[in-house]
Amino acid sequence: MGHETWVRVENLEKGLCGKSRHVFFRGVATVVTKLFNIVEPDVAVFGKKDYQQWRIIQTMVRDLDFGIKVIGSEIVREHDGLAMCSGNVKLSPENRQKALSISPALSRTKVEAEKGQVNCRELINCAIQTINEAGGRVDYAEIVEQESLEPVETIKTPVVFCVAAWFGKVRLVDNTEIDV
């Protein structure tokens, strides 16, 4: 008999990666809950590269009253700027070169926002164009509020610009926090 019990963080799992990976975060939350029950840690560190996952775990820990401090660690990048990920080794040399477009697209967006460009549609379109021109296929590009992960139209509070893009058969995620 299969499992019938799952842990869900319903609102946070709907957007971003949840749009194309419908039950992925249900599995993540369930497995992490089981791990936390077995190990009983005081602290858990999750990488911010998977920003949505980090926020889901934070919320789950809060809602289920775990006595665990969940820390988000900054994105670690390879020497060429690509966010470290197990999927990077699956990239062909040509697609790896194309994938290098993500980080500069996000950085440029952050700089533009810091200079006063707060229209999210314009910022998003610029990043999508950069990635598409490099040969990537954008799965999503969204600017969302940092805690609720709700999309915003204008940057007024701290946000995160999250991107997922395909390079060949490899889907990569990356993001940048913008605090203007």
From TrEMBL:
It comes from the Eukaryota. One of its GO terms (molecular function) is pantoate-beta-alanine ligase activity. Its EC number is 6.3.2.1. InterPro entries: Pantoate_ligase (IPR003721), Pantoate_ligase_C (IPR042176), Rossmann-like_a/b/a_fold (IPR014729). GO terms for biological process: pantothenate biosynthetic process. One of its GO terms (cellular component) is cytosol. Transmembrane segments: none annotated. It catalyses: (R)-pantoate + beta-alanine + ATP = (R)-pantothenate + AMP + diphosphate + H(+). The keyword Repeat does not apply. The keyword Ligase applies. Pathway: Cofactor biosynthesis; (R)-pantothenate biosynthesis; (R)-pantothenate from (R)-pantoate and beta-alanine: step 1/1. It holds the Pfam family Pantoate_ligase. SUPFAM superfamilies: Nucleotidylyl transferase. Keywords: ATP-binding, Ligase, Nucleotide-binding, Pantothenate biosynthesis. Belongs to the pantothenate synthetase family. This is Pantoate--beta-alanine ligase.
